Amino acid sequence: MMSVLLQSKNISKHYGGIKAVQNVDMQVEKGEIYGIIGPNGAGKTSFFNVCTGNLQPNGGEIWFDGKKITGMRPAQIATLGMARTFQNIQLFNFMTVLENIKIGFHIHEKTNIFDAIVHNKRYKTDEKMNHEKGVALLEKLGLSEHAETLAGNLAYGVQRRVEIARALALDPKILLLDEPAAGMNPIETQNLSDFIKQLRNDGYTIIVIEHDMKFVMNLCDRILVLNFGQKICEGNPEHVKNDKLVNEAYFGKGTTF
Amino acid sequence: MIDKIKNFYTQHKTLVILGLIVMALILPLLIQKSSIMSIIVKMLFYVILASSLNIINGYSGQFNIGHAGFVLIGSYTLAILAQLNISVWILYPLAGVVTAILGLLIALPTLRLRGIYLALVTLGFSEILRLVALNWTSLTGGPMGIKGIPSPWLFGLQSTKPHIYYYIVLAFVIICLFTSYRVINSKVGRAWMSIREDDHAAMSLGVDIKKYKAINFMFGAFWAGVGGALMAPFYKFIDSTMFSLDEGFNILSMVIIGGQGTLIGPVVGSVVVNSITEIFRFADEARLLVYAILIISMMWIRPQGLAGTSKSVIANRGIGSKKTNIFTRIFDKKGVK
Amino acid sequence: MYILEQLVNGLCQGSIYALMAIGYAVIYGVVGLVTFTYGEIIMMGSFSAFYYFIAFGDNLLFALVAGFITAALVGVIVHKVCYQRFLDAPRYISLICTIGMSMFLKNFATLVFGSEMKGMPTFFEGKFISLAGIRINYLQLMIMGIVILFSVGLTVFLKKTRIGMKLRAVSQDKKAAALVGINVKNTTLLGNCIGCGLGGVAGILLGVYYNSVLPTMGGMAGLKAFSAMVLGGLGSITGAAVGGVVIGVTENLGIAFASSGLRDVFAFALLVVVLIVRPQGLFGKKGN
Which of B149, B242, C24, C65 is most buried as measured by Cβ atoms within 10 A of its Cβ? Predict the structure, then answer.
C-alpha cells in the first residue's frame, strides 16, 4: 500500500475568460514517476505552476505530504520539500556550477549575516556541510569536472543535469521536472530517461511534464493526460496508449473538419 | 593588460592584499602635502560609498540610483547628534544603523518593484530627503547647513589633519570590504546573487526573496550611512547640496566604471574617477566634461567595468544574446511582478 | 480664490510637464531605453530659443519651430552616442551613457553659455482675464493652447500618417517591424528626434513661463518628465499627459497648503506613493 504524497483536488485556473485548467484531480504516490502530458496549450504548465505555488488557483486545493499548500509562496513550498526545474533552464549563469549547487542547500543552512561576518561555528558547519555535500552530489551525477565552470558557459545537456542536481540539493521529497527533454537529441534523451529512473530507484518521487509521448511512455509509472485544461485520462502507459480520447487529442478524430 | 593584472591577483591573493594594506598604512608617511592627502581621504570615502552601492546594485541586482539619500542620512545623523556632545566614535556606527533602518523602511514597500520602477522610487526618496534637509531649518540648518562638526580624538590627537583622519577612514574601509567579502561568501551572499541572476529559480530553491532583498538594502544602506558619517567631521560642514542626485550618479558611475558585482570594482572605480577629476582640476569647469567623456567612453570600450568579468563571458550571454544575465534582467522584466 | 488660482497655475505648469512627459514617452516607446539626458535636451531647447529671440526678435512661433529642430538635432547626437550602439546590449550601458551625456551637455552649456541666469522676453506683459474672480494670464492660456496643439498634432501624426504608423509599429515590436520591411534603425532615430523636439518645445515654454533659462534647469525638468511618464504608465502618451498635469497640480496645490520650498517634495512624494500602490502607473496595464 503506497501513500499519497501530492494531491490536487478540483484545481481550476482561469486567465480572464480562458479556462486554462478545469477541475483537475491528481494523486501522486510516493516513489513513482508520474507523467503529465497533453498537446500544446493543454494547461500542463499552468497546472504545474499551480502545484509549485508559482500560480494561485481560482478554485481547488493542493495537498503535499499531509499539508494544504494552496496559498503558500513558492519559497515556502520549497522548504517543505518540493523541488522543480524549469522548461527553459534557469540556472544562475554568472555563478559556477558548485555555487549553483550551494544555493540548492539554502534551506538547510542556518547562517545569518552576523554569523557570516564573525565566521562562528554555525557558519563553519554550514560551509563545510554544503561544500562536502555539493562536491559529493556533483561527483555522483558525474559533473565534477564542471564544478568551477560558470553555469552559463556549459553545454545545454549539461546545464539540464546541473539544474536537476541543484534541485536535488534541496533534498526534496518530490521532484517536478518541466519538459526536461526539450531541446535534447535522442541520445541525450535516453540518458536523461535512465538518469530519472535511477533517481526513482534512489527513492525520489518524480513528476515529469512532457509533450514527447514516447519519452513519457517509456519512463512513467502513471500518466495524467490533459486537453483543453481538463483531465481526459489517467493511468499506466498501456492504458493511456489505448485510450480513445487521448488518441483523438493527439492525432485528431480521424475525420476532417 | 587588465586580465594579466587579474590573473596575478588571483594567483597571489593574500600577498597582494597584504601588500596593499601595508602600502595603505605607510602612505601618509610618504606624502607630505595635506592637499594630496585630502584627495586620498576623499577617495576612501568613495570606496565605502561605491562599495555599499555595489552591494545593492551589483550583488542583488536591484537598481538603486538614489544612493545619495542614504549618504545624506548618515552625514546629518552624525552632524546633528554631535551637537549633543555624543562621542563621534559612537556616532559612526550609529549613523550606519539609522541609515539601515531607513533603508529597511524604503525597502519594505518597494520589495515587489524592480528595474526602472525601483530606480525611480529610490531617486524620488533621495530627492525628498534632500529637499527636507534643505527646508527643515530648525533641525538641519536649512540652506546654511551645519557647521563646526567635531572630529574625533585618536591616540590623544585631534584628527583634524587629513594625515590622521586618513587612518580612521582606512580602518572603516577595511572593515567595510572585509565584512562585505565575508557576507558575500556565505549563504546570505549566495542568496543575493541568486536573486540577481534569476529570482524565479531562487524562489524555487526556497530563497525568501523579500527577506534577502531587505537585508541587502539594509546592509548597503548601513555602509552608505557610515560613509556619509565619516565625511561630516572631515569637511566640518555639510549642507544639502552635497547630496544631490548628481552625487548619486557620481557614486553610480564609480561602481560601473570599476565593475559592478566585484568587490574590487568600486575600489578601482573610486580611485580612477577621483584621480582623473583631480588631475583635470586645473581645467576648472571643463574637468566635469572630461569625467563625462570618461563615463561614455568606458561604456563604449569596456562596459563591464575595469575589474568586471572578462569580456568573453559577457559576450557569451550579454550583448545580443537571449539568455538571461544579470544586466539585462535588471531592465528586461517589465518592472512589475 | 487663492486655491483656485493655484489650481490654474498648476494646470499651466502641469501642461508643460505633460508636453515634456509626452516627449519622453515617445522616446521611451520607440527607442525602448530610459534616458537621463532628456532634461538637458529641454535645457538646450530653451537656450536655443533664448538666442533665437536675440537674433530674430521676440517671435515665439519661429522660436518654437527652430527650437524643435535644434532639440531634435541634439537628439541625433544623443542617439548616436547613447542608444544606437546599445539597442541590443544590456540596458544599464545606455543608461549610464545618458548620465554621462547629461553631465557633458550640462557642463558644456555652463562653459559656452555661462552659468548665470538669463532672462527670456515677456509676452502679453502680464495681461490677464478674470473668470469669476480668478485671474488667468494670457501667457498661461497661450502655453496651454500650444501644449494642446502639439499633443493633438502628435496624436494625429502617429495615427494617420505612414511614418506615424511605422513609429508605432517599431514601438510595439522591433523584430516584427523589421520583418514587414520597416527600417527600424532610421525609425528609431526619428522617434528619438521627435521626442527630443517636443522636449525642446516644452523647454521653451518653461523658459518663457518662468522668464529665465539656466544651464542647470534641465535636471529637475528631466526628472519631472520622467516621473510624469512613469506616473501615467510607461510609454503611454495619454498617461504621460495626465501624469504631467497631475504632478503640476499637486505641486501647486501643495504650495497653497505648505511652504513653497517643499514644491518638489510633493511631486516626488506623489510619485513614490503611486508607484508603491500602483506600480504600473495610472494608465499602465499590469505586467506579467
Answer: C24
